[in-house]
Amino acid sequence: MRVAVIGAGVIGLSSALCIHEQFHSLVPSLELEIYADHFTPHTTSDGAAGLWQPYLSDHGNLQETLWNKETFDYLLGHLHSPAAKEMGLFLISGYNLFTEPVPDPSWKNIVLGFRNLTPKELELFPGYSYGWFNTALMLEGRSYLPWLTNRLTQRGVKFFHKKVESFQEVSGDGVDVVLNCSGMRSGDLQPDPELQPGRGQIIKVLAPWVKHFIITHDLKSGIYNSPYIIPGSEFTVLGGIYQHGNWSEEISAKDHKSIWDSCCRLLPPLQKVKIVGKWSGLRPARPSVRLERESIRLGNLQGEVIHNYGHGGFGITIHWGCAMAAARLFGSILQERKHLASPPGPRL
Amino acid sequence: MASPKVAVVGAGVIGLSTALCITETYPSCSVTVLSDQFSPNTTSDVAAGMLIPHTYPDTPIDRQRQWFRETFTYLFAISNSHEAAEAGIHLVSGWQVFKSTPKEELPFWSDIVLGFRPMSEAELQKFPQHSFGQAFTTLKCDCPPYLLWLEKRLKATGTQMCTRKVADLWELHSEYDIVVNCAGMGAQQLVGDKQLFPVRGQVLKVHAPWVKHFIRDGDGLTYIYPGIHRVTLGGTREKGSWSLSPDPGTTRDIFDRCCSLEPSLQGAQDIEVKVGLRPSRQCVRVQREVLSHGGVKLPVVHNYGHGAGGFSVHRGTANEAAHLVGECISALQGSSSRAKL
Fold first, then answer.
1. Binding site residues of B, as ranges?
2. B5-339 belongs to which CATH class?
């Protein structure tokens, strides 16, 4: 049973690991291969700050809220394990700021210690009159992806540096299932007008005295188009750009200035910090995550593709819940093909 | 008395902040800070500088609240300004956890720090050996940055800094009109205060930049305080010990206790061990005194004995000491104008 995974960002690697963990002992012939044009540290996941936080509203998409919760709980469970540091996993608290009262988010009971900000705390942020404080998690891509890669390599999973142009390309030669985790470039494999880039840009600075994330919201301009500051373990990320439909991965001087000016207004001490990097990337945005099976004609055989893409700006936040859902879909494929008598183990 | 000459003995957080308050409130004074040690070699440099008050048994609670409130307000304004990074002042959130519910569930300072509330069940899961906790956000003064920032502000007002070991306050009477005693542990010898005693504290300063929260055991013995570049792990409270040498067994013990609160500290690097003697007293001595010797008088203002709570109340006690200096100035001006009659 050969499985080809396309994509080596957080989604591809975690889905591959989840499937291997769950099915390897049940399906001894299971062979996983990962194909990608970019590996860490050059994936979209590497550019993200790594903060676990969904969007403000799930738009009734309870499935995604559940996947977010599964991810948070899974990561929380690993917080005290010896692997946490290597994974780039740690707790972080901080502020979400608004210029008007807003309803509580779908994730208020998933994070720890969620509460409204007190008037004294709001004094720290002139111009903002309402906000939340909570404790969440950081999962830094540049540590997590290598950690996933190591776990996969230990399990004998093979990696291929290749830009895949079609499902057929990887599915010849006995590959039964293709796991499509190609993020922004899924449209190259199969047109999907619902998948659009949500271009982001960030500035990396050294500001080690900042211990909290600070995320502002401008309900009119939309998510992540308002300044945010996220302190990591080695540098702090300044951001606040979300351009729907913009495919450019070049650094824009205009966006740089906009991020810089707005973040310095938010936190005046930033004016004196050293800039250590800049990055621009494309959030693979979609009205909802595409996580489903599709039967595809592969030569003269029927193959199965499991799609798992379109995680926008919340890939890290939702990744494990999606990986487990992808693994369940894989399990159902195995059942149908009589590789398994019944689905393995209890699941959420 | 056109320009009273004031000597401040001591260059830790108390000496420097008191000197600064004096220059701010009485700009006509000429202030000199005298100390055998300056940052980074003061007791204050060993401390983490967390604004979590220590309770002095014999100081009225109202006065302690006032001191803490003034200090918090002062530092809060700096943390919000352009100077925050240079001054080493930053906000930090975290948890104080207890193995059994404390007698006092609401400490006197709970409404002064930010967002104080009991921890939820979910938050307590992170601390399996503890059954009760409090979450809040407070401020931290990193040293040396904070002390260096105070020194810089003092120099800008024309304050002189002199490295000098003062063996006796009387030494100063011919050069200075008023002496302010902020000698911390040194006050024991300097003024013979037998109520002052050392409480030895050993700490580790480690590189663990993924630790973004403070964690403190309510017993005050085990704590993790993340600073700008290093995390302070503590500690000990050894009453009566004068030893400034790090003890390796204690280092191991502190590290183990902190790792049991925060397992990821196992990966901490570059462990540096430091020792300080908290200048402890049942109550902080903020008091005026006139020393008299052979017809000569020397007005003295004492500001020492802050023990484990120096940073938490420093600005409040500095304000009070500066006020007492003002009283000394008035008294001197009164007597000098009488002398002119």
1. 43-44, 166, 223, 278
2. alpha beta
